[in-house]
Specification:
Helix content is about 80%, strand content about 0%. The longest helix has about 35 residues.
């Protein structure tokens, strides 16, 4: 939901940067790879060290590359299957690193196994959400629905994790992750229901009267 509403705003905001990068010879693929590397390093180095605020800030900055590379590809007229595949694949890597980094810290120095387990739950369910959409689209169905899409999941975990690093009680992060996991599970069900409805409509439409 947030993806669709925020797209216009961020496109206008980052278009000048995207054009500058193209002008100096940077490719959209390079921005995608560097952005993902920054997210992964921030999540798997700073989070396990307990640097929740700085980790979240670094991740947020590099995560914006996901907007910039898309603008660059459209400016070049090169939006296509390869860029889509690379972007989607590296998004999964980045998402996994973020939730894994939170889990590592709270299993170790953070001393809160409940938060760590909730974070792993979000990681697993988030992967299922992404897989459900990819599988649906490979079968010719539409499954870009749900109350907890990627943007909502990332903004929630980065904001509250960062604030936890600044002194917010850890219980707030626990509650956020539990709610996020529940919303993600609902999204999985919503996508399954959407695909089932389309599949049944195809069967009914192909059945002789």
């Amino acid at each position: 939901m947030l993806n669709r509403h925020a797209r216009g705003f961020f496109t206008g905001l980052f278009s000048p940067l995207a054009r500058f990068l193209l002008k100096v010879g940077v490719s959209p693929d390079a921005v995608t790879v560097v952005g993902t590397a920054g997210v992964v390093l921030g999540a798997l180095i700073l989070y396990p060290l307990g640097q929740l605020w700085w980790g979240s800030l670094l991740i947020a900055v590099f995560a914006l590359s996901d907007v910039v590379d898309g603008i660059m590809a459209r400016e070049q007229g090169r939006s296509g299957p390869w860029g889509n595949f690379l972007d989607s694949t590296l998004d999964r890597l980045a998402d996994g690193a973020i939730f894994a980094g939170v889990a590592i810290w709270f299993f170790t120095g953070g001393g809160n196994s409940a938060i760590a387990i909730a974070s792993l739950g979000c990681l697993v369910l988030g992967m299922v959400v992404s897989y459900a959409r990819a599988k649906a689209e490979s079968l010719g169905f539409y499954a870009n629905v749900g109350i907890a899409e990627r943007a909502e999941r990332l903004i929630s975990v980065l904001l509250v994790t960062g604030l936890t690093g600044l002194g917010l009680p850890p219980v707030v992060l626990l509650v956020t992750l539990v709610i996020l996991a529940a919303a993600t599970a609902v999204t999985v069900v919503q996508r399954m229901a959407a695909v089932r409805e389309q599949a049944m409509a195809d069967v009914d439409g192909g059945t002789p009267a």
